[in-house]
Amino acid sequence: MAALQFPFFKPAEELPASLPTVSDILTSEDIIKGTETWATRKVVGVGEHFIAKYGKSNDAIEGKNLLFLEQNGFQNIVPKLYAMWKEADGTLFLVMERLRGDPLDKLWPTLQEADKDRILKNTADIFTQIRAVPHEEFFGSVDKCHMPHHLFWCPDLPQNISGPFTNERAAIQGLLAKSRKNAQGNRKHAYFADTFEEQLMAGLVVDNGKAPVFTHSDLQRKNILVEIKEDDKHGKDFRVSLVDWESAGWYPVWWEYFVAFIALQWQDDWCRKVVKVVDAWPAEAALMKMVYHDLWL
Fold it and tell me: How far apart are CA 28 and CA 22, in angstroms?
């Protein structure tokens, strides 16, 4: 991708209106995320055109991902990045396009089966398009740095744990290296990592694995916006877009199914519908859920 000039501001002629000020953002009462007292960042609406995400724990990679997608021709299905800057106190601000629609998790209980299927077909089309972007020869973020997903996070982002990685096997070994580091910190032997590498790795990766794909890395209904429009032919038309791109990057082909799988709550039929959006990789998801439990729970 083209290098990002930071701070970043889109030219005024490419904006739908004047950018909101810091004061506009901080005083917004249209709080979309971050109402909890423990929240380290917020997402707010500012007028009809803008969404702002801000906080000291904010990550610039989301802005880079949005620019990468725009440079690859994706419009209307992902938000445009209008501005990104950091204040003196370390607060990072992203100002993005406010896409129309409601989160799919909110709409889900009201939808007929046929409507769900049409929405999921539109969502699947988006994933197919973004995963068809010609791949780079590494697993990691669009700026060729660490893997953006939180499972790979480690203080100081050591490359053997956080990446970037040259192949799929190295990426999994990075997670096992994190498991060993955690065990060492707890003064324990890394039996899980040893057993996984000796006995289970072969079920997950053959040789060095497959080529990476660019993917969203957080397939949940809350990140799917649906705008419902009237249509003469079908009665309804559904315009779908995806938000919350901070975890996106170059991952194994099965990764999106895995992250959707570990987020399932088993409370409704969404668990049966994920395969209408991305291909199922049940063996890989089951093996990786063991890694997830070791690292996160």
Answer: 10
